[in-house]
Design brief:
Layout (H helix, E strand, L loop, with lengths): L4 H10 L7 E4 L2 H10 L4 E5 L12 E4 L2 H11 L3 E2 L2 E2 L3 E5 L5 E9 L6 E6 L6 H7 L4 E5 L8 H10 L9 H14 L2 E11 L5 E3 L2 E5 L21 H9 L2 E4 L4 E5 L2 H13 L6 E4 L6 H12 L6 E8 L4 H15 L5 E7 L2 H10 L4 E2 L4 H12 L1
Parallel strand pairs: 14-16, 16-17, 17-18
Antiparallel strand pairs: 1-6, 2-3, 2-6, 4-5, 7-8, 7-10, 8-9, 10-11, 10-12, 13-15
Helix pairs in contact: 2-3, 5-6, 7-9, 8-12, 9-10, 10-11
């Protein structure tokens, strides 16, 4: 779950990381109040959960209240990279003498946190790290051992930082603490600015929390409707289902990310267009399956639905019962095809077929997709 910039900065403040003074606004009146409580000039920043906001024109500056109101009106209701702007962050403009990059994420190969630091911050940090390798340093961290401030200082010194610039090490250490405390998959400050007076400010911040750990952080009070415009996505998140809307008209439900992605790819290989990616995860229950089918059938674009399930531990009759429950309740008029293999599969097949739902008894997803395409033709 990605946090908005203003939410990320609130968390950084908890850990003593300095951020510019600012307030959010969703209207002209709120913009006036925010400017009065800040100090001109200000930056007006569209709050959207997408990268490349600055390049897309999502950040503007104002030297007067009237200018701030004008920019706020321009942003509210506007789309940036396909995302609606419902809120702006109005904060004091910081004159940076130099900009740095600080980040913590999960190393994909080792599974360990990796702390990153660059003496070059701002836009295009990825290309900067590739081209100016001497300006970038990283360190993998053992979760059980932790990351100490003296190690942060060593990273700073390895990049040639001296004097007041070494204060950056404390911020890097605190960023790691926030990363661990909030079960993050990414914590990033880009840029971290230093002023001519030697003060540091996190100009922009990004935090992404592991979806599976959200229950551990009720204090975040994340409002799903401010994050997702798709009602199906909102309901899927509430139900613990992984859902991504696609551009096609064939619904897809799978039990596991790999199986579902393979199903999506095969539908395209056979000339179809997937309408979504939805995977149930490992803990299939009757209620979860019923909810998954109900959510996908809300999509009015659908011409068909393919359900691809593999049950290693999960009893497949429960999945079948949940599917049949929704099928009888909604009486869909589109073709539904189920490929189901695994634990108690024969009993599950019987439940589905007795309800009039076609079943593919092969382990090969190709055969299920081929049959579905024939049904559509």
């Amino acid at each position: 779950m990605r946090l908005f910039e203003y939410e990320s900065k609130e968390i950084l403040k908890e850990f003593g990381i300095p951020v510019p003074k600012g307030l959010t606004a969703t209207s002209s009146d709120e913009a006036v109040s925010a400017v009065q409580k800040t100090a001109l000039p200000v930056a007006i920043k569209a709050q959207v959960l997408v990268a490349g906001r600055g390049k897309a024109g999502g950040v503007k500056f104002a030297s007067s209240t009237e200018e701030a109101i004008t920019h706020t009106k321009e942003f509210i209701g506007k789309k940036i990279e396909g995302h609606d702007v419902k809120c702006v962050l109005i904060e004091e403009k910081i004159d940076a003498k130099h900009e740095y990059y600080l980040g913590v994420t999960i190393d994909q190969f080792s599974g360990k946190p990796i702390v990153m630091l660059s003496t070059e911050g701002g836009v295009d940090i990825e290309s900067i790290a590739m081209k100016k390798t001497k300006s970038f340093v990283s360190k993998k961290v053992s979760i059980s051992r932790g990351f100490f401030e003296f190690e942060a200082r060593e990273l700073c010194r390895s990049l040639g930082l001296r004097g007041s610039a070494l204060k950056l090490s404390s911020i890097l250490h605190k960023l790691y603490e926030a990363f661990v405390r909030y079960d993050a998959t990414l914590a990033e400050i880009n840029p971290l600015a230093i002023t001519s007076e030697g003060k540091f400010y996190a100009i922009d911040a990004k935090l992404e929390i592991d979806d599976n750990a959200l229950f551990r952080h009720p204090d975040l009070e994340l409002k799903l409707k401010t994050r997702f415009e798709d009602e199906i996505k909102i309901e899927a998140v509430k139900s613990g289902l992984s859902y991504v809307k696609l551009d096609g008209d064939i619904g897809v439900i799978g039990s596991g990310a790999g199986l579902t992605m393979a199903t999506v790819d095969l539908i395209e290989d056979f000339g179809g267009k997937p309408a979504n990616f939805l995977e149930t995860g490992g803990g299939i229950t009757e209620d979860l399956m019923a909810k998954a089918v109900e959510l996908i059938l809300r999509d009015k674009r659908l011409k068909a639905l393919l359900i691809n399930l593999y049950g290693g531990i999960n009893p497949m009759p429960l999945a079948a019962k949940g599917l049949v429950r929704t099928y009888k309740k909604l009486k869909p008029r589109i073709p539904i095809l189920v490929k189901l293999i695994g634990n108690e599969q024969e009993k599950a097949w019987e439940i589905l077929e007795s309800a009039g739902i076609p079943v593919v008894r092969s382990i090969q997803t190709e055969k299920a997709v081929e049959k579905l395409m024939k049904m559509l033709r």
